[in-house]
């Protein structure tokens, strides 16, 4: 058993978002005004986005950045047309319990498959979103 004290952390950024109205008729606005979105129920009426889409966008963007960090460390050039399709499922059990499932479909053209898989695997270990979701929701990451 280790008795080493945790390493101090340097705060890099705090996102501050004010949300009102929930999913049905909500709005979310960041303190700096860069994010200002209307919210609506997935598949329902309204022209707003939903929390699942926001999670998918955040995770896929963060994951691509994590891939860039790993690629730089390994001295591998990522192709300009690297792409990630994120899918976040909102599910409900027969008992009425809600839960999420998520997938990333990562496309790394012109990079040898075994090298691309290594980048994907390493990125999944360092991506903050992946860390937050690992063990909490079902996650699948496919190299396509």
Topology of helices and strands:
Layout: E1 17-20, H1 22-25, E2 27-30, E3 36-38, H2 51-73, E4 83-92, E5 98-107, H3 113-126, H4 128-133, E6 138-143
Parallel strand pairs: 5-6
Antiparallel strand pairs: 1-2, 2-3, 4-5
Helix pairs in contact: 2-3
Radius of gyration: 18 Å
| CATH homologous superfamily assignment of the largest domain | K homology (KH) domain
At the third CATH level, what is the topology name of the largest domain? GMP Synthetase, Chain A, domain 3
- Strand arrangement within the widest β-sheet reads 1-2-3
Q: How many distinct helices?
A: 4
Derived structural class: alpha+beta
**General form:** globular
Task: Please give a handful of descriptors for the protein shown.
single chain; alpha+beta; GMP Synthetase, Chain A, domain 3; 2 domains
What does the model show?
With 144 residues, the protein is of the alpha+beta class. It has 2 domains: 13-49, N-terminal domain of TfIIb, CATH 2.20.25; 50-143, K homology (KH) domain (GMP Synthetase, Chain A, domain 3), CATH 3.30.300.20. It has 4 helices and 6 strands. The strands form 2 sheets. It has a 3-stranded antiparallel beta sheet with strand order 1-2-3. α2 (51-73) packs across α3. It is globular.
Write a brief structural summary.
This protein is of the alpha+beta class. 33% of the residues lie in helices and 26% in strands.
């Amino acid at each position: 058993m280790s008795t080493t004290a945790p390493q101090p952390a340097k705060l890099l950024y705090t996102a501050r978002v004010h949300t009102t109205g929930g999913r049905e008729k909500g709005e979310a606005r960041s303190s700096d005004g860069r994010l200002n979105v209307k919210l609506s129920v997935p598949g329902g009426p309204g022209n707003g986005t939903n929390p699942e889409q926001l999670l998918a966008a955040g995770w896929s963007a963060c994951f691509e950045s994590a891939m860039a960090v790993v690629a730089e460390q390994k001295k591998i050039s990522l192709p300009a047309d690297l792409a990630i399709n994120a899918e976040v499922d909102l599910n409900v059990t027969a008992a009425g319990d809600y839960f999420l499932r998520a997938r990333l479909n990562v496309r790394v053209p012109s990079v040898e498959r075994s090298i691309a898989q290594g980048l994907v695997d390493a990125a999944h270990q360092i991506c903050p979103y992946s860390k937050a979701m690992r063990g909490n929701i079902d996650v699948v990451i496919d190299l396509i």
